């Protein structure tokens, strides 16, 4: 089964709105339907009513005019439906679902223009310039890269046409400077780039540099303390049971820190081997049963504490 070829050769996806409008305009003009986009929407014309003292001949002329006006309007509606079908047939399926409710070609065209055709949108200018900045031939034939370059350049000239006004030239030079520095930022700054491009007026190059430095400083500020707080919280929680030892009291040796049931004097078998053999060479810190206020740290905890102190000294500049 043969399928009817689309009159508009480009499928509108949103990103290619500029190229789609050129193809759609040519397609509608070829069928004499462009006036359905360029002319105000027509409404059903009123019917002439009979005048007082109307003769039979005048009545026939009035009815004939009413029939002709209605016929012209029905023909216009039919042509408008043709233009609407041509436009709908060139939309991506997801876009078609969003814009299917529009009943006239002009209504659909204007809706698409509002969403995708904002020619004053600086974000589109930035996107085009970034594409030009990153455009590389690599292993492609030159004809392909030439086509991509010319297409991007043509849209850029459409969005921001050439001007001889000195103030406009200076303003665009400042914008180009801003676009260039934004193109150098990595993906972690995408939120900030999005915020900058949403503004009606772009910041100056100096203002943008200050924003970037402030963003970078804020990241450095919040990164360190979060890691330090995580480390301290982890080790404070791990040593919390040491403070709870003060709640115990041994009735046998009259000391705090353990109960009578866990007193080593009454229960020698409960005494850890490292305390039975005495202090060994290379051990870090030991806490005996008699030293109630001392803290026992393992080798892993000592390494973590050393790393924490080194980080604090480094951040303090010592």
Main structural class? mainly alpha
The amount of helix comes to 55-70%
Give me the Rg, rounded.
40 Å
Annotation, overall tally of beta strands: 0
Order of helices and strands: HHHHHHHHHHHHH
**Mean pLDDT over the residues:** 77
What proportion strand? under 5%
What oligomeric arrangement do these chains adopt?
single chain
Give the secondary structure arrangement, pairings included.
Elements: H1 17-30, H2 35-38, H3 56-89, H4 93-99, H5 105-116, H6 122-134, H7 142-159, H8 166-183, H9 190-197, H10 205-238, H11 240-244, H12 273-276, H13 299-316
Describe the structure.
With 318 residues, the protein is an all-alpha fold. 59% of the residues lie in helices and 0% in strands. It is elongated, with a radius of gyration of 40 Å. It starts with 16 loop residues before the first helix and ends with a helix. About 11% of the residues have low confidence.
